Amino acid sequence: MVTEIQLIGVNKEYKGDGTVTDALKDIHLNFHQQEFTAIVGPSGSGKSTLLNLIGTLDKPSSGKILYNKEEIMNKGANKIADFRFSNIGFIFQQFHLLPTLTALENVLSPLFSRRVSFNKKERAQEVLKRVGLANKMDALPSQLSGGEQQRVAIARAIVHKPSWLLADEPTGNLDTETGKRIYELLKELNEQDGCSVLFVTHDPNLAANANRIITIKDGTVISDECQGGGT
Ligand SMILES: Nc1ncnc2c1ncn2[C@@H]1O[C@H](COP(=O)(O)OP(=O)(O)OP(=O)(O)O)[C@@H](O)[C@H]1O
């Protein structure tokens, strides 16, 4: 299990149409197991880029990211995918559910073609119950509210038992009250199930309740504050 993630001198540039965007510049950060961290900053400051790099969805242009002191992105594509499957769950603002699959099938989808030590269907049912959707397993995404869809997406993100949950504006598409409940669920997964959580948010109230707040501006970390225990 990955207990520590270290970013050492990480840069990310995007090249295209003759322009180069320096999305992240010389980032040095350490993340530890069971932290509950908010990443904040203005639009375009590099928050999603940071999350994608930590989640092995993309490679730094230079610098290193170490997982328990090991570099993963220099391995082959299959090894990287296996690593991601074992360790990381993603949650997005837009939910990204497959519209023709039921809630249960959506939650099962990361397990297709994967060999696991548990019963897939039982595990999917268990995580749907865990997020409060025991009575919606057979519903299609179109039959669910935004908050319920995000719960399905969270169940899908944790079905393979990752130790790190990376959430890119998980409440960005939800009204304040629903967003708060989704936030509470992430907090519960952190405190009760031991998931490390890194989440990007524009909501200062949600960020204020995290244990650690990292502020990014123009691709650099301008502050990194730990606070005693959150709520
Ligand atoms: N695939 C890409 N190709 C080119 N430029 C990109 C790409 N992805 C992001 N960028 C640029 O990199 C910078 C950082 O983008 P990023 O999405 O990480 O910011 P963000 O802080 O998450 O923004 P927001 O809060 O608006 O989602 C921006 O200038 C953006 O335009």
UniProtKB/TrEMBL annotation:
InterPro entries the UniProt entry points to: AAA+_ATPase (IPR003593), ABC_transporter-like_ATP-bd (IPR003439), ABC_transporter-like_CS (IPR017871), ABC_transpr_LolD-like (IPR015854), MacB-like_ATP-bd (IPR017911), P-loop_NTPase (IPR027417)
Q: Where in the numbering of this chain does the ABC transporter domain appear?
A: 5-230
Q: Name one GO molecular function term.
A: transmembrane transporter activity
Task: Establish whether keyword ATP-binding is in the entry.
Answer: yes
This protein's GO CC annotations: membrane protein complex; plasma membrane
Q: Name one Pfam family in it.
A: ABC_tran
Alphabetized UniProt keyword annotations? ATP-binding, Nucleotide-binding, Transport
Report the sequence similarity comment from the record: Belongs to the ABC transporter superfamily.
Q: Which PANTHER family does this one have?
A: ABC TRANSPORTER ABCH.1, IMPORT ATP-BINDING PROTEIN
Name this polypeptide is given: ABC transporter ATP-binding protein
